[in-house]
Structure formats: C-alpha cells, structure tokens
C-alpha cells in the first residue's frame, strides 16, 4: 500500500514538474492592493464599532452616575460609619508593607516555594508564529525581586470586621525585556508564490456613477436662415413713383436671398443621471448667428444721404426718404448681411450607449431661443449709409428648435470629463414675424467641445 502511494505521488510530481508558471509582477501588485483595501475596510469597521461602544459605555456611566447622585438620599448605617472612621485612622497593610524600611523575615517554607516558582518561570519558553519569516523583538516578562505582605493575626474575615485576612499575599513584580525569537515556520516558507493568474476574476475599475454634473461648452458650425425668394412686390418700393431716375430697373426690387453663414455659442450646462442610462440636462447658452451677404441697390436724396434698399418695413429712415419722392439711383450696390444674437435654453434627454471611461450618449430635445438683438451690417466700410439697420422688430422674440446630438466623453481623474458633441438644430417655428417680407425656419449644424465635472 505504501509503495502504491509513493508511486502515485511520484507520477503526479513528474507530470507537474514543468507546469509552474510565474505570473507577472502586476498581478501580485493588484492582489496586494486589493487585500490592503479589504483589510483597511475591516479595521475601519472595527474602529467605528469600538467608538460606538465606548460612546455608549460613557453615556451609560454618566447617566447612571447622575441618577444615583440625584436619588441617593439614604443615610450611612452607624455601625458602618464607625468602622470606616476606625479604618481611616489605622494605616492599611499594603502601606505598612511598602513603607517599612525594615527587612522582611521570610519563613523557610516561603523561601522554598519562591525558589520553585523562579525555576518554573525560567523553564517556560514562549512559542511564537511569525508569518512574515522575519526575526522580531517581542517583550518577554521576566521576574524581579518579589514583594511580600506579611500576615497579621489568625482570625477569619467576617462582615464589617476590623481585622485583615489571615492569608499571605505574594506580589511578583515583572519587568519587560526585549528578546529576539526565531519564527517556528521560517524553514518552510517560500520566497515566491507560483500559480496561474486568474484573469477572469480581474477587478474592473469603478465607474463614475455620479448622478449630478456641471460644465461649460463652446460650439461652432454653419447657420442657414432658410429665407426663400418672394414672388410678390415689396413694401419698400410700393411708392417708387417719386424716384426721378426713370432708368431704375424694377426687377431689382425682389427680396434679397441671404446664403448660409456661421454660428457660435457658449455657455453653462447642468445635468442629472436618472436610473443607469437616462440623463436629463439643460443649460444657458449665448448664441450668435450671421448670414451670407446679399447685394442691395444704393439711392441718395437731395442732401446726398445714401440709403441701401433693404426691403425692411422697420427701416424708418429709408421709409422717410422714399416718402419724399426725390431719390436718385446711384448705380452702385452694397453687400449686406444679417447678424442675430440669442439666449438659448436647451432641454435634452439622453440615453447612455456606452458607460465607461470612454462613454457615448445619444441626446435629443428642444431649445427655446430668446432674441437679444438683430441687425443688418454692411461689409463695405467705405459707404456711409443712413439706414436704420436694427431689424429686431421683424423677428419673433422667441422661437423653438428641435435638437439632436451624439456626445462622446472621456473621463480622467474620476471626476473630470472632456466632451465632443456633433449636433443638429432645426427650427420648429418661424423666427420671422409679420413685419418681415419672408417666412423662414433656420437650421444649423455644428460641433461642440466641453468640459464637465462629475460630483
């Protein structure tokens, strides 16, 4: 039977002789870190438990002391008071033992017992188990000179007796000495552990699941005002019979067509995460749009004031000059463009497609655009025009957009996040009103970059 067992062990040892695989150093670093974190959590829980226990004990002691202090009205029995008075006047046996300068005379039997006790203490060898395979310095208690309290009297102890006990009490004074002891398992400890890394149990880094965040963003892109050509006549030239230049071509009275321009925006963003993958966000942005330029004819009055034929009903200066009927055609053109300023409040609902250090969120929602200012600007600084270029009266004070975007984010240092967000906005309502000669729903396509802090 023993031979069969040894053969079985030899076969297994031969088959596993070359099966040792040394895992990478990073595995042990990760294991040590994980174990250290778990141990720290255990210590923290124990410390919290002891703190609460100490606080509870202190509270109970304080409460009990206060209770007995307030309710203890009983008188001390006369016999007990007398005995206490006598004990105060008589020094205790311990004080006599330690304050006396005379040498103590020990009986022969006591000396023999003391000698046996010393030998027993010297024969005791402490056993320590050291898991770290290192020699340690452990304080060991050793015996020094004993102190004895002699017995007094032979009477037995009774209740409220003024006499002390008949038994002899021996006090052994111990002192601490550092003794270097060897570990009992030191010869059997291995310097390295060998095995195969269990990669399927790798601890994934914790994800940022903060439900609230705040950040800033800046976006740029294209802006299409959505103006179309008007088929009807326009108000600005309804009273052109007063123009003295007969060579003026009426075909020039059509509404100008403005091409696409640029858009820029920037502002603050706030968001909150609901459930695991639903995000609701909003913010406050300042947006500026402009259109491409369009050609407008120039006319002048008798005072040589020059006007651009803008076809804007709110251009009071041009309307006043047209009502006089003494304008002349200059035969020149000027390039005009629109500029808009809005405060934008977006409300977006997002779905998190990828929730990791690199994350992707699909957003959709609505935005309200509040008009701040609108005007026409001339691209030629050489022409001094007398028009009233403020066009805010021709546009709605608020219009609404449908918006959609895809947000790409990268988290670093756990709380900080960089964002890249392509977006598309389409007006749901017209941003021009009845004072404008055209109806338009603008749209813009852009890309935003941002920075976010996750609380």
- Alpha carbon gyration radius: 49 Å
**Helical percent range?**
10-25%
State mean pLDDT (0 to 100 scale).
74
Name of the top-level CATH class of the largest domain: Mainly Beta
- Give the count of helical stretches: 6
Keywords: Membrane, Transmembrane, Transmembrane helix
Organism: Reichenbachiella faecimaris
Protein name: Outer membrane protein beta-barrel domain-containing protein
Structural commentary:
The chain crosses the membrane at residues 49-70. It comes from Reichenbachiella faecimaris. This is Outer membrane protein beta-barrel domain-containing protein. Keywords: Membrane, Transmembrane, Transmembrane helix. The structure is a single chain. This protein is 23% helix and 35% strand. It is of the alpha+beta class and 455 residues long. The two termini are 69 Å apart. A hairpin with a 3-residue loop joins strand 10 and strand 11. It folds into 3 domains: 21-68 and 127-135 and 182-203, no CATH class; 139-180, no CATH class; 212-454, Porin (Beta Barrel). The chain has an 8-stranded antiparallel β-barrel. The chain has a two-stranded antiparallel ribbon with strand order 1-4. The chain is built from 6 helices and 14 strands. The chain has helices at 2-15, 25-71, 78-89, 93-99, 108-123, 316-324, and strands at 136-143, 147-149, 169-171, 174-181, 212-224, 261-274, 278-290, 294-300, 306-308, 328-354, 358-378, 398-412, 416-427, 443-454.
Q: What is the compact description of this entry?
A:
The chain is α+β, with helices and mostly antiparallel strands and 455 residues long.
